[in-house]
Amino acid sequence: MIPRSLFFRFIFFGLFFFCWIHQTASFSLPPSKVQHIVSTHLDSVATPHDEEQREKMDDDISNDWTEAKGGILPRVRRRWNTETNQSLLGKKQQPQKLITEISNLMDYKREVVDCEEEIVVVKFYAPWCRACKAMAPRYKRLAHEKSSASVKFVQVPVTQDNIVLHQGLGIPSVPFGHIYHKRAGLVEELKVKKKEFATFEQVLQTYLDGECELLL
Question: What is the pTM of this model?
């Protein structure tokens, strides 16, 4: 008869030997087999069992990701401005340029003489002129309020390169203003200093309205 202590020792070493063989066999699995086991386990965890949830996941992936060589990349979405029909791509829309600046004779001919607008308003100024700086906000406000498809606002600074342009147009001083009409040419020559700017606005409004008061 086998002693009880020897019997338990035999059972213990048998279990130990069995576990050692099983562990060694698991480490000897080929990489493809291990990858298959892991991927199968992950699929069973990550994939919803509900059909509606699975379709929703597929839609989210197709909307937010795009396939590329070697994997998938996040999809860049474009924001669309319905008012201007322009793609913004997360950037702020550039404001429309209300005042066109002219620096030479050729630009003056193209932007003023040969332009398609019904009325062209021109401001002659000098960058160093204090009176020009004082009236600049008023001219900018006027351009913002009155600029349209039929009215164009232009400004011409005095520089060494275009001094002949100012002399040829007979500009007596700065700031000074011209109003051009498409069918009549130069119709108004007025001073546009700060204290005289209100009169310039009233005169311009008469051309915009197409009527003026007669002085009796």
Answer: 0.56
